[in-house]
Amino acid sequence: MRKTFHFAFILILMLISNIPVFAGETGKISGHVSDKKNKESLMGVNITIVARWESGVERKITGSRGAATDKEGDYYILNVPPGVYSVRASYIGYKSEIITQIRVDVDKSTNVDFLLESTSFESKEVVVTAYSSKKVEQDLTATKQVYNIEDITASSSVSSLTDILELQADVVDDHFRGGRVGQSSFLVNGATISNPLTNSRAFSPITTALSQVEVYTSGFSAEYGNAQSGVVNMIEKEGGETWETRFEPSTSLPYYKTFTDNTKSGGSVYSPNSLHFYNVLKNDMQAWLAIDPTQGKQLFAIPSSFTSSYKPLNYRDTLALARLTQIMWLSSIRKVGLEYNNRFDSRFDFSTGGPLAEGLKLFIAARQE
Prior knowledge:
By secondary structure, the protein is mainly β.
């Protein structure tokens, strides 16, 4: 049995509070503050993010992130990482008010309004726990769905990015609304993870290392270039206010891929003996220029885009282009040769993160299959 170890998506995020975060990775909190009695706008009210909710527990935030209202009573807080927060409004002569469990999504403005009550004496702050986001997003110009990884992993058996995309009604096997492979764009924190040969997704990130997954199926903006069918924007997790470590083992029963060559099913799909041309096409470069007896034509044909070149292609050029085709073919069948022998599939996910020092946090995720 051959084991594979996947540490390609080990995330080490050292986040310093005064480093700006790029667009496409954060959200915004905005709103209006007014007097509860006469509805007049209040200028100079301090709006501060005071806590972040992690696994259903409110954690106080070290440092400060906030804004003050302008003369119209409006405010906005930019570059807020996706998550669930508690926000406080404080003003001299008024009771302080905290609104809890405010969800911030990537590329979205979350509206939070305050109605402050005036007072002539010092009193305790008011905590509002009945916050709920608006059902209709007035600033939404695209068809998209935002998946909170913590929510969907707790309610469903989601172990990979493919499982998340299959929650969409119009996405099947990375095909958006019938589009072909290579027409979709996959990004991790704004950086593409495309295979340069096929323009398809190069690897599947570890789900426990993600905070949110934003899926666009139409109407995406120009900031997502080279996308025709859909966009998947994945946001990595950050270290929290307290250290938190997570272990997630899982296993699956043997199924079709464990069949041996002696079964009536026709053999294992990973056995070279079940692939008639595997050994020839893997080792013999000349075989790619031979005639396929099943179709009566060559396995490899020079793309039409090369035939219009001002310089005629020679035999060496033809072999070079055939080699590129062979590399793409080998990439598509890279699991050939695995021997399962009716063993169970197993997977082990590990993640840990927390503060290292003031303004400095760490997060690491790894997977073994």
